[in-house]
Amino acid sequence: MKKKTLLFGTLLLMILMMSGCVEKKDAITTEDFISQAEGSGLKCSDIVKEYSDNPSILKATSAVDEKGWKVYFFTLDSDSSAKKMFESNKKRIEKASGGKGATFVDTKNYESYKIIVKDEYYYICYIGDSFLNVHVDKKYESDVKAFCDKIGY
User: Fold this and answer.
1) Three-class SS of residue 86?
2) Maximum CA pair distance of the chain?
3) Which residues lie below 8 Å from residue 140, measured CB to CB, with a gap of 6+?
4) d(CA 87, CA 124)
5) What stretches of the chain show up as alpha helix (H) in DSSP?
6) Residue-wise over 64-96: b if at least 16 C-beta within 10 A, else e?
7) What tens digit of pLDDT does each residue of 47-103 get?
8) Distances in Å between the alpha carbon of 128 and those of 3, 26, 113, 122, 133?
9) Residues above pLDDT 70, as percent of the chain
10) Span 100-125, mean pLDDT?
């Protein structure tokens, strides 16, 4: 009986400790994204006109590296719109990939999803009212990860 109680207590302690390890992330603004992207040598463009059919998208920016990879950053009208955009992109990627080998993080205020399909690296993330979308050749995966870590996504 003591062994079971000790095992249960240890398991409960581990769960509580792990739940404290999940960090809360804060969304950045489009202006912060542009500043950090340009500071990393990326060229930014306002692409909101390309999404004029989606009224929930308030701002849209692409950041292009000189090697050719792109990151898309969106500011939406609400957290729920960002989550909805994340979910629709996740479903599209899962359909194309079968979802095998994906890494998915789901916390209180953000979600992320990444996967390599054939020679392509996909990474999507939403935090609050923002959404980040990456689809690049897998040879750029480490560059993209470094940039996303830098901006907190």
Assistant:
1) helix
2) 66
3) 65, 67, 68, 69, 121
4) 10
5) 2-20, 30-39, 79-97, 141-151
6) ebeeebbbbbbbbeebebbbebbeebbeebbee
7) 999 999 999 999 999 999 999 999 999 999 999 999 999 999 999 999 888 877 888
8) 44, 7, 15, 20, 15
9) 84
10) 90
Name residue, tokens 């390309």: 50
pLDDT at 23 over 80: no
CA 100, CA 92: separation in Å to the nearest integer? 14
* Residue 151: closest CA among 32, 42, 68: 32
Take residue 3 and report the two structure tokens written for it: 């062994």
**Tokens 């701002």 -> residue:** 59
Task: Quote the CA–CA distance of 133 and 136 in Å, as a whole number.
Answer: 10
Residue 111 identity: E
DSSP state letter for 26: -
Q: In what order do the strands lie in the sheet with 110-117?
A: 43-46, 57-64, 70-76, 130-137, 120-127, 110-117, 103-106
- What are residue 145's DSSP bridge partners? none
